[in-house]
Design brief:
- Helix content is 29%, strand content 23%.
- It contains twelve helices and 19 strands.
- The strands form five sheets. Strands 2, 3, 5, 6, 17, 18 and 19 form a seven-stranded mixed sheet that branches.
- The termini are close together.
Length: 426
């Protein structure tokens, strides 16, 4: 399938094509339908006739996915990823909106330090990219950022990559965020309980002599913050939960009316520490937990405790990820593998319906974070089978625990605001 060609002597034109007969996800269900798309100034032609329609009856059209937790590394760490490379990777994964975390250089803790990121987004993003601002200056946990000035330009406030250690600081942040109509999005980690750990303190760590990270380092701060959210009335969102205690705490808080949502990542849903290898591509924070934790996450996903799935896409250089479990940097990439992994290992196995997966990837994050839906969608061949190969990634980061996994579902094209932003070589 060739949608456009480029010529040395070229003039940009707008080409509109109707994709006919696909299975389209609309209003919570799949049905046959047609979708009109534009290839805009991506199309350069000379003496070539384009079809007015294409039969895509063997394909599925899904609404544009949203990832509320990515690291695009620009400004400050462009050797790991850029707005351009990261947003292209997102488009290849079917995403049309992402929210990028503030552990950058400079940290966006004021209007002035946010501007370099906004400029990079304006210049290079191929999809919608919404920046977070830091909760505290420099993400140091000591002084609040300029939240009032930042609020109109950011999606929410987070110190992701670090936990806010002071309950007094978090309470004040929640009060201000509530007044501003913004969410507090929390990386929950108690530094006093880390003890230099770098994987889960479970069976694998004990068997191989690794320092472990205890589950309480995550669920302890969640318990604290849920009390503060109840007290302040602030909208509170928990990042990348990984433990069964976290699921239980959030489930109970929802029952009592706390304004809380949460996310987990694909790797926590389909992997546990029994699958660890002595390789940096298995190192992320929080770490892969026990099989019992994974089962609790799946239960939370099914009963609605876990509202959405986010990748925590965290690219690093090859050198930074080549130092084994102990010495490698924390973080793996996920934008280009999330849907195929989830579709193959949750939907195909009967654990999750396709409709439920779309809700976790599209409608729930859009509703919680007030992210609008335009003419945004992706075209998938859900019958295509292949092995995940990081060499194919558009992301600059290549470290994934899913390398070599066989998956079903290939993204053929992604459209943002009705225009093609990703086209597979088919």
């Amino acid at each position: 399938m060739v949608f456009y060609q480029k010529f040395e002597e070229r003039e940009a034109i707008v080409v509109t094509v109707v994709l006919k007969g696909a299975q389209v996800f609309r209003r919570g269900a799949f049905s046959g339908g047609d979708v009109s798309v534009s290839f805009g100034d991506r199309v350069f032609c000379k003496d070539i006739v384009f079809p007015s329609s294409l039969n895509v009856s063997s394909f599925t059209i899904l609404p544009g996915f949203v990832d509320v937790h990515v690291h695009l590394r620009e400004p400050g760490f462009s050797y790991k990823e850029t707005i351009f490379s990261g947003s292209r990777a997102a488009a290849r994964g079917g995403y049309t909106a992402v929210c990028t975390m503030p552990n950058l250089n400079p940290v966006p803790d004021s209007v002035e330090t946010l501007e370099p990121q906004l400029e990079a987004i304006r210049k290079s993003a191929v999809i919608a990219v919404y920046p977070y601002a830091a909760i505290t200056k420099g993400e140091q946990g000591l002084v609040l950022s300029d939240m009032e000035a930042l609020a109109p330009q950011v999606i929410a406030f987070s110190d992701d990559g670090r936990g806010v250690q002071s309950p007094e600081m978090m309470e004040e942040a929640m009060k201000r965020a509530k007044d501003l109509g913004k969410l507090i999005v929390a990386h929950c980690e108690d530094n006093a309980l880390l003890h230099g750990g770098y994987i889960h303190d479970g069976a694998y760590a004990k068997a191989h002599g690794h320092r472990g990270i205890c589950s309480e380092s995550e669920w302890g701060p969640i318990a604290r913050d849920l009390e503060l959210a109840a007290k302040t009335g602030c909208g509170y969102h928990v990042c990348h939960i990984s433990t069964r205690e976290s699921v239980d705490l959030i489930r109970q808080a929802k029952k009592t009316g706390v304004d809380v949502t949460c996310e987990t990542g694909p790797h926590y849903l389909v992997m546990d520490d029994s699958l660890l290898q002595e390789d940096g591509r298995f190192k992320m924070n929080p770490p892969l937990r026990s099989p019992e934790d994974r089962e609790a996450l799946l239960e939370g996903l099914l009963d609605g405790t876990i509202d959405m799935i986010a990748t925590d896409h965290a690219p690093h250089s090859a050198e930074e990820k080549a130092k084994g479990l102990e010495k490698s940097a924390f973080g793996v990439v996920g934008l280009e593998t999330a849907f195929p992994i989830l579709y193959t290992y949750l939907v195909h196995t009967g654990l999750l319906t396709p409709e439920a997966l779309v809700n976790k990837l599209v409608w729930n994050p859009r509703k919680r974070f007030a992210i609008p839906m335009g003419n945004d969608f992706s075209v998938w061949d859900l019958d295509a089978q292949y092995a995940i190969d990081p060499a194919d990634f558009l992301s600059q980061g290549k470290a994934t625990p899913f390398e070599g996994w066989t998956v079903q579902g290939k993204c053929l094209a992604t459209f943002f605001d009705g225009r093609a932003v990703y086209l597979a070589d088919v």
